[in-house]
Amino acid sequence: MICKLSRCALTAAGLMYAVNAAAGEQNMPQQIPTVTRTIQAGELISDADIEIRDMTGRGLPSGTVLHKADLIGREAMRTLYPGSPITQRTVRKPPLARKGATVTVYFQARGLHLQTDGKLLEDGGAGETVRLMTELSSRVITGTVMEDGTIQVN
After folding, report:
1. Would you state the pLDDT for residue 130?
2. Cα angle vertex 143, ends 97, 136, to 5°?
3. Is this model's pTM higher than 0.90 or not?
4. According to DSSP H, which parts of the chain are helical?
């Protein structure tokens, strides 16, 4: 019985140490990239817009961007303020295809190749699915944005 109690005490002490160590890690300052000026939604982030600041892990939101390289060339999806942590949900790769733009739409099936123009109903990056309206029939269809900015419909 004493052996069981001492094992429980050691296990509890070990858990308390692990919890305290994890809490200590959250209080350690981390170097986090932030912006040096207010960046409006839709603006691209350049190297000159970024500075590294020390922040404690406890105050960082989930999904905080930890590396400067993950921000350069990204587009702000909402206003970013100087000194504030930036999350992955607030930046994105700039879309290749912009809402309202006229794009070339390709359809291929069993040796049949069709090409028409369409108007995008939403932004989209390479590999993303977007909705668009064909100019000839005014039908709404979906397609995949290709690397060259055209849309592939299957």
Report:
1. 96
2. 90
3. no
4. 2-27
What distance in Å separates the CA atoms of residue 94 and residue 103, rounded to the nearest whole number?
A: 17
**DSSP element (H, E) containing 100:** none
Q: How many domains does the chain have?
A: 2
Kindly state whether residues 88 and 129 are assigned to the same domain. no
CA nearest neighbour of 127 among 90, 100, 97 = 97
CA distance 138 to 148: 24
Asked whether residue 66 is domain-assigned, the answer is: yes
Nearest to 94 by CA among 73, 78, 79, 80: 73
Are residue 85 and residue 128 in the same domain, yes or no? no
Structure tokens at 133: 């309206």
Instruction: State which residues form the domain around 77.
Output: 29-93
Q: Which two tokens stand for residue 43?
A: 């603006």
Q: What is the pLDDT of residue 58?
A: 75
Angstrom distance (rounded) from CA 25 to CA 17: 12
The pLDDT tens digits for 82-132 are: 999 999 999 998 999 999 999 999 998 888 999 999 999 999 988 999 999
Contact 106, 148 (CB under 8 A): no
